[in-house]
Design brief:
The complex is a heterodimer of chains A (194) and B (331). Chain A is 68% helix and 2% strand. By secondary structure, chain A is an all-alpha fold. Classes of the chains: A mainly alpha (194), B mainly alpha (331).
Chain lengths: 194, 331
Amino acid sequence: MNQLQNLTKGFFKENPVFVMLLGMCPTLATTTSANNGLGMGLATTFVLVMANIAISLIKNLVPDKVRIPIYIVVVAAFVTVVDLVMAGYAPALHSQLGIFIPLIVVNCIVLGRAEAFASRNNIFSSMIDGLGMGLGFAMALTILGSVRELIGNFSIFGYKFIQSDGILIFILSPGAFIALGFLIALINLITKKA
Amino acid sequence: MNNLLTISGSPHIHTTDSVRKIMYSVIFAMIPAMLVSVYFFGLDAVRIIGVSVVACVAVEYLIQKYLLKGDVTINDGSAVITGVLLAFNVPANLPTWIIIIGAIFAIAIAKMAFGGLGKNPFNPALVGRVFLLISFPAQMTTWPIPKPLFAKSVTDALTGATPLGLLKDGHLANKTIDQIMSDPAMPDYIQQLVGFQTGSLGEMSAIALLIGAAYMFYKKVITWHIPVSYLLTALLFAAIFWLIDPTYYADPLFHLITGGMILGVFYMATDMVTSPMSAKGQIIFGIGCGLLTMIIRFWGSYPEGVSFAILIMNAFTPLINKSFKPKRFGV
């Protein structure tokens, strides 16, 4: 597998949200708007890249039996960085995402990539893998957030184009399930045809 | 349709029942309530029912013809029922575009996305109503005060709260039940039975709904299990709390004839697709609906719980079906 494939697999073929259905909790909970989805996606991307690099570095030092707790500690360190940076520089987004930033620690995509990829590959491949997966996740969250904001609030990235209240349910949690279900159906339809 | 051979043990008795025949009996049974709504709300009722039915049938046609590219079965009447029931569940002054969105949601997402008639786990009309209630809370809870067709009226459009809404607001304002019931906006029992109260199109008149229900019983479209267990459970539950604290809880009769209770019990909980198959299962289903309805009415944040209760029990239907299989003979 060359590095380009390694980077692009996260977007469509192995998209964490649309294909692997990983990290559903932040996906459903934080995508109330395109901005929130993008913010959450980028925060996760940062954590994924850094955690993949770090875990790839220490993969030979970690005893096999205690690897999961050690991975979690590594991931938690980077999540703390994101949490504090976001609280300092983007307080509005930070208060919107709330508990879901600290919860990146237990996001199954991050641990999944560490376990399945970074602990078996070299640093550069791990970094590329983290970047591809993270951007794929960010893309999925932004699409889902845009769809929900578009229907639920008649706006996109905060720009309101119809001066009216939207179909509120799409901002609420049932709308997340409905929108995600139909997006996955659409993507399956496209990939089946291709 | 795709299974012409019956694969159960003999003997087989053939009846003339068909999906179409049953569906049209239900539509026929809804005519009294429809007439009452037209009497009280005039052209608005005609507009809501008409738009809802046409939108439901059109959405089903478009999906079956162009998306699924299969048989078009809009003639079986199920989309018409969904349309009428959806219209029955909304206030008469709802903007036309909102009712169209509700119809699209009810048919496209609650019914066709699951595979069409017979495969939908939830009652499409109720999904449409709950969707609208959550999405457009302001428009869905502004109830026009009924204005009989030939009555002279000074004002054009008045709105007011439903009896259950008054009850909920009264509780929030720490009023006793006597104070709430003596509110001038609260209709008395006769008015509620006849239909002179605020509410959704179809829940106006208990009498008209009961006439339709009697017709459905006569035609054997519904059985007694779900309605009786539903009503008895709700009545008992309401009676227990009324006896415990008559200054806080309204009496059981009030809960029976207000809101969507009669409409839900006879027309929506009994939906063949989304209710259990065996008699025992249907009784469990009715008890669950009755309990949930009263729990939501007493302690929930919404004043009315019928639609939520039926939808929640719809979700339990496969489980109930599994637990209460009829006994096989000769095994």
